[in-house]
Amino acid sequence: MQAVSKTALWVASMRAVEAARADRLHDDPLATAVVAAADSIPPAPPGAAEFMAIRTRFYDEFLAESVPQVVVLAAGLDARAFRLPWGGDVRLFELDLPELLELKEKLVAAEGLVPACERVVVPIDLREDWAAALAERGFDPAVPTAWIAEGLLQYLSEEDKKRLLDTVHAQSAPGSRFAFDHMDASADDRASVVDTLERIRSMGTDLVATVDDPAGWLTAHGWSVATDHVPALAVGYGRPLPDFMDPAAANATALCTSTLP
């Protein structure tokens, strides 16, 4: 299996852990099926599942304010098309590598999952012309869109990241919204973060980790941007982070929402 699929399996396994909790912040039937079908999944370091639960809930809440189109960039094994209460007029596009989406479709079929919106799968490498692939499948850049890039920017080179932001901006009508996360330079000095990053890199990924300021880029292009951090979000969700987690390390990840007026 491709290295990126290994990280997708890893994320799914942490979502399955959260789904099994009585006080869960999200449910995810696909994640449970992924774990059952996988031969082996690398164990997550302490605190990773707690972090993933907060990040997942953040994006779920972002998408609760619905717009006619939703684009999930690097969708992986994300199951939001099936588990969120969409309106029937929402069209959701999932973009990711063909081999990963092929695996996902097999799992979806085996579980009998039915999307709660119009779901459009777009097999594409995001380093290619994915805007053209979206257009071929019915995406309308004149319609307001909610974009999410969950755990994506850390895997892109600066050139690829700028190209992605350029494309999102060019394809966004007024009223569009964009949520993403990134790690600032302080993450490089936190032992717990470094351990997690090394585990991810051991799966064969080209993880960059920290990136230049994407919020600043969007602001310069007319977007309004708000930034949250995991510890404060965790308190707001009624799930304060465990004492063993390093608050400074958790704060190194910025979760951002932006709107194009």
Please provide a written account of the structure.
By secondary structure, the protein is α/β, with parallel strands linked by helices. It has one domain: 3-Layer(aba) Sandwich (Rossmann fold), CATH 3.40.50. It is 43% helix and 16% strand. It contains eleven helices and seven strands. A seven-stranded mixed beta sheet has the order 3-2-1-4-5-7-6, with helices on both faces. Helix 1 (3-19) crosses helix 2 (29-37) and helix 1 packs across helix 3 (48-64).
Q: Helical segment tally?
A: 11
Unreliable residue runs:
none
What's the Cα radius of gyration?
Answer: 17 Å
| Structural classification | alpha/beta
Q: Strand sequence of the main sheet, in spatial order? A: 3-2-1-4-5-7-6
* Range of helix content: 40-55%
How is the secondary structure organized here?
Elements: H1 3-19, H2 29-37, H3 48-64, E1 69-72, H4 80-83, E2 91-96, H5 98-111, E3 118-123, H6 130-136, E4 145-149, H7 158-170, E5 177-183, H8 191-201, H9 214-220, E6 224-229, H10 230-236, H11 247-251, E7 253-259
Parallel strand pairs: 1-2, 1-4, 2-3, 4-5
Antiparallel strand pairs: 5-7, 6-7
Helix pairs in contact: 1-2, 1-3
Compact overview of the structure:
The protein is an alpha/beta fold and 261 residues long. It is 43% helix and 16% strand.
Name some characteristics of this structure.
261 residues, alpha/beta, Rossmann fold, 7-stranded mixed sheet, globular
